[in-house]
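Below sits my pick:
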Amino acid sequence: MSTTNVNLTVKTTGAITLTDAAVSKVAELISAAGADEPLALRVAVKSGGCSGFNYDMYFDSEVADDDIVNAVGDVKVVVDPASAELLVGASLDFTDGLQGAGFHITNPNATRTCGCGNSFS
């Protein structure tokens, strides 16, 4: 399902949405990894950081029975149930510019964020 949000096309995964730029970059990184088994992007929220929680993203070949799994284009996105509750309505974007490249999560559930951009409460 595609929607428009702040002039960015996003694709809904259920727990988090990904912009076209994020989907493209994740697909590129998975392809470059050259893994023997299919990889998915796992997005998680872990305790810690300056504000209480940290975002964690990595490629994973294992999926638990209770994980929320959705395909976004050619990318499979996996979120554990506890993280999904904290990521509802959040979006993942990728930017590549003069100030550097990277992924950024915008989360409407975050009441406070820290300067690093990876920690929230």
